[in-house]
Design goal:
By secondary structure, the chain is mainly alpha-helical. The protein has one domain. The chain is about 55% helix and about 0% strand. It contains 3 helices and no strands. Helix 2 packs antiparallel against helix 3. The longest helix has 21 residues, at about 30-50.
Length: about 80
């Protein structure tokens, strides 16, 4: 987050996914970019949990984390990681 916040085009309220869609990547790295994008979604959800003020906020954030983690693991099987 410190690195993201240091970028000149960083929004006032940076998220782990800030700037990912503006990344320029070679065509043969599209799978890696998708992995990074989905991983950042998990980090975004965790950031939301970190700012939960009420029990209902916490429950909502946990539900979101579960969904994005399930999406991540379904799309990016850990057996393919070196």
């Amino acid at each position: 987050m410190e690195w993201i916040s240091s970028l000149p085009q960083c929004p006032a309220f940076a998220r782990p996914s800030s700037g990912i869609d503006s990344m320029i990547v070679p065509d043969d790295c599209s799978e890696l970019l998708e992995d990074i994008r989905d991983g950042a979604a998990v980090c975004d959800a965790l950031t939301t949990l970190d700012s939960a003020d009420t029990d209902s906020d916490w429950q909502s954030a946990m539900s979101s984390i579960e969904k994005v983690l399930e999406n991540y693991w379904n799309k990016h099987n850990s057996s393919s990681i070196c």
